[in-house]
Amino acid sequence: MDISKIKKAILTFNTENKFVKRDAEKIRGYFGTIYKEEDLFHNHAVNVLDHTVEKKVIYRMPLIQYKVINGNITIVGFNEGVDILSSKFLHIDKIQIDDVFYYNFETQFTIMEEEFTVVDEFFNYSFESLWLAINQKNYVDFMNQNLDLNKVLQNNILTNFKNLGIMVEKRIIVDGYFKQRSVEIDNINHIAFKGNFKTNVIIPDLMSFGRMRSIGFGTVRRDK
């Protein structure tokens, strides 16, 4: 069996405060401003033309993902993102969310190598956060009740493989149970889903799928 492995790092800021999942976007904005020269922090290419700052989205899997897990600010890095976390984030002595600065926290930093590969057995996973499966391409099919969410998640997983440079030679199979939800992002309501699924893919815990992966949406964890 061809095992594909990736590097993963988890950095957790432990404070007396408990944060909510929507804070992940604010955390990303804070660190993206501090390290604006590093596009892995914010996934934007920044050009300065005639004294005007132009930002363009870089369409790729975010290798640094901002999340709130169990009320704690958590940043997960994959492959090149691991090195960035090691060199930059360990020197952080404060965090700002809205107008509040947080100084007193302990950090936990772990680096590991994990499998991300298609195999012959099935594993069960649950979404830790809402999965944004609907985009401009599949919206009409969804509204006409012609969208297979298992197929969407299958494609999401395949996209992560491609973004990480991993060749997939076996068919990805997904069988899930999803409940529709709604979430407001930037004053706009988005269709989202909670649920669980089984697949023949070994997925590293806390990897995200679908839209807005960089701010924690679509985060999965294997069931125990």
Shape: globular
- Radius of gyration over C-alpha positions, nearest whole angstrom: 18 Å
* Average pLDDT: 88
Strand content: 35-45%
The count of β-strands is 12
> Could you give the order of the helices and strands?
EHHEEEEHEEEEHHEEE
- In DSSP terms (H or I, runs of 4 or more residues), the helix count works out at 5
How many structural domains can be distinguished in the coordinates? 2
**Main sheet summary:** 4 strands, antiparallel
Strand order of the largest sheet: 4-5-1-8
SSE map:
Layout: E1 5-14, H1 23-34, H2 39-42, E2 44-49, E3 52-57, E4 64-69, E5 72-78, H3 80-88, E6 95-97, E7 100-102, E8 106-115, E9 117-127, H4 139-143, H5 149-163, E10 174-185, E11 188-202, E12 220-222
Care to describe what's here?
With 224 residues, the chain is an alpha+beta fold. The protein has two domains: 5-113, no CATH class; 116-222, Alpha-Beta Plaits (2-Layer Sandwich), CATH 3.30.70.1900. It has helices spanning 23-34, 39-42, 80-88, 139-143, 149-163, and strands at residues 5-14, 44-49, 52-57, 64-69, 72-78, 95-97, 100-102, 106-115, 117-127, 174-185, 188-202, 220-222. Strand 4 and strand 5 (72-78) form a beta hairpin. It is globular. Residues 44-49 and 51-56 have low confidence and may be disordered.
Defining traits:
224 residues; 12 strands; single chain; alpha+beta; 4-stranded antiparallel β-sheet; Alpha-Beta Plaits; 2 domains
Summarize the structure.
Helix content is 20%, strand content 41%. With 224 residues, it is an alpha+beta fold. A four-stranded antiparallel sheet has the order 4-5-1-8.
